[in-house]
Fold these 2 entries.
Entry 1:
Amino acid sequence: MEWGFWVWWVFTALLGGLVAVFLILKRANDWYHTSRLGEKQCSLPPGDMGWPLIGNMWSFLIAFKFGRPDSFLSNFITRFGPTGMYRAYMFGSPTIIVSAPEPCRKVLMDDEQFKSGWPKSTFELMGRKSFLGISDEEHKRLRRLTAAPISGQKALSIYHEYIKDVIATSLDEWAKAERPIEFLTEIRNITFKIIMHIFLSCESGPMMDVMEEEYATLNHGLRAMAINLPGFAYHRALKARRKLVKILQAVMDKRRARENSNVSEEKTDMVDLLMEIEDENGRKMDDEEIIDVMLMYLNAGHESSAHATMWAALFLHKHPEYFQKAKAEQEEIVRRRPLMEKGLSFKEIKQMEYLSKVIDETLRVVNVSLFNYREAKTDVNICGYTIPKGWKVLIWYRGIHLDPEIYMNPKEFNPSRWDEHVPKRGTFIPFGMGSRLCPGSDLTKLEISVFLHYFLLYYKLEPLNPESGVRYLPHTRPKDNCLATIKKLLPSSST
């Protein structure tokens, strides 16, 4: 009897001790990061900073890895109410998650109180002189230098000619192959070819193949935890970045040697322009700046464009009524086209009113860019809550774009919602807003528009796995990368 009593007592003590340790560890992160704030901790947003060191990253990764991305934010909402601001611990830093339009707008637009605050993994991989990591002054300088040659209307009209040729040729090749293709993978090949042509006048060859492979590895590490050990995505991504930097540096060294040898060649691509361009003080971009800018645009003009294009085509395939409406608009554009004009012109892009709604709806539903990051330069009060100096701010785009209070049936793809809906500021921000608006947004929309023009008119998508599951990291995509056949329509069924 006594023996049984002592066993029960020891068991109870151990269990109580484990519970106590569990509760202490569960609150340790919160205590450590908030206790030093003094009175300011009383005005912090509600939240839970998770476990020591790892914070909320396990729940974040589990939510996305297992196909329930909205469960991460909904857990905060369920526990703490729809406040639109929550404290957490993300990517190694105390963080305020912002998921409502008003605080998002204030954080994105206020350069006086917030600066870029991306996690170490993203900062290191994109480069310390990329748009993500530089100061506000340097950011403004780089935007001034690169805006016209990369996203200006004149530059886009020039790129348009190459974009439409490579898209039309690729679609024809896919149809002639008469075999299943990974639709997303093939579109990624197109957008990579386009960006390589713009930057390096390079369309194919061993160098481009290596760069495409290494960039894919780098991209997988952008939203990973910064664990620089073999076997982790961040470690592989760092190695890929070093290889990409070496290739791009070799290209610039070769161009510079060509200039020094007085060999006269026409300078037509972005590398030549970036190597020559000067600011108002006569200062040129250094090699590190040029390389980091190119890697930044690879992400904006390659990954974002490819995923958004694939989803737009897939959504239209799943919704025949929207497909027919979008196609009718493209047929009308062709009917109005002068007889002497061959192929899609740049000015016709402006006539695609309904297709523009299709693209916006795709960007809203899919959220190619899941979130953005800032860091508070000083203590900031927003909507009654304090964001302490030095804390990160994670702007959760998905929470805004899929908010039923803003968009009726938010997960439903419905381009026609934009017929009457005029988004209030801060409620539609697929490319961010403010001074750090994504610099490749216009190029992305141009690529999607040109692709959908030719696709709607002349081709048909037949997915092999219509009910394929979805992966959400590093970008939202079907698990089979949209395995499908592309069939060319008969002349009688197209324009």
Entry 2:
Amino acid sequence: MSPMAMANIVSGYLFLYIFRPYEFWSALGSFHLERIYMIILVLCALVYNRKRFTMTAAHMWLLFFFLVLIFSSALSSHSQVAFESTWKYSKSLIFYVVLVSTIHEPRQIRRIALAFLGTMLLYVGKSANEYFFHGRYMYRMGIARMYGIDSTNGDPNSFAASICYSLPFVWAFAGRQRLAFRWQRLALLGYALLAPIAILFTGSRSGLVTGLLFLVMISLKAKRKFAMVLLAVIVVIGGWQFTPHKHRLRFLSIIDPSVAPAAESAESSAEGRIKGLLHGIDLFTSHPLFGVGPNNTTFTLNGFQAHNLYGQILGELGGLGAFAYFAFVTCTWLTLRRNTRKLRALQTYNTASGTSPPDFDMLSRLCKASSMALIMLLFNGNFGHNMFRFNWLFSSFFAVSIAQLLVYAKASLRRHIINEEQKRLPSTVASLGMSIHQF
């Protein structure tokens, strides 16, 4: 099986994982397409002759976190609910292992990133079509809110967060030279226009501030910072003008909750995030090692989630789970930063030597995009329980796969330098002999 064929098979499961057509079209649910495809994917990975898996520091912490998850589920008072969450997360881990084991080449990594954006375009496009043309919305907080077509991450806040986490990868491919075909550039432009519109119509305040954080980050990374800031301001003002009045009031309630269409709900929603954090700390003090178990805060908060990553992880998985989880995130972040520095150095050398390397600029931008996604996940964690989101693992995939690629690139570069030195050696000896003879 060729590397690109394996990348295409992985991309197919990525589509099922994000779009989840079996949750929108209920008739497909009885066929269990995701299970059948996962079995096919695992079998293809097993017979794939170029697979390799490296036990990095991030993977060690991820394994430790999963073990804590199992122990916490076993010790929880509602173990059936806890093990259900653990089982769902284990399926994400299986897909992650397949990703990091089979996707290593630059073309493969690029294909996965493009497949992710293409799937998000279809997912957000279908959800927007249902909202604008078929009147499919969720009336909450006094406004008609757009939501995703799936039931897993379709909640307006989760849907807006999913869009926000994809924006750094839109930035990674921005620029005419990074996409070979015109239809790809048009599709990317279409998604870049659709994404902020969808965020606004979800009425998600956390989605709005996370999107603004993204604009700040790309403005700081831009070479022409003033022009980028000016463009960001124009986008914000233009988007605000087309936002319905009730949605504007919903967003203004970030500053003044009393102006929201449902003021009491808006204020209680904001207080719920703080309450979730404090409740998680209380649970941590009474269950310091393993917490009360995954998804068990619903039984201690009268059926509600913590709506706060830090309260959720401290309360549900205790100190061991929190330490392992954030150690994994830290290792992923450091690997991405190290990859960026190495790619910059390799790109500098190849430019000076005149060689034609892989697209190091594209790989570098994917590392930066993954770093931005991690920052947005940590920031948005103040407003939602996003511990089990696949986006954490997706950023880790780019970190690990590009790091492995750089190991082989470094070895190849070393061989290239040795060969060049050997080619120059005879001419150096001859010139030295001529100099001795003239002397």
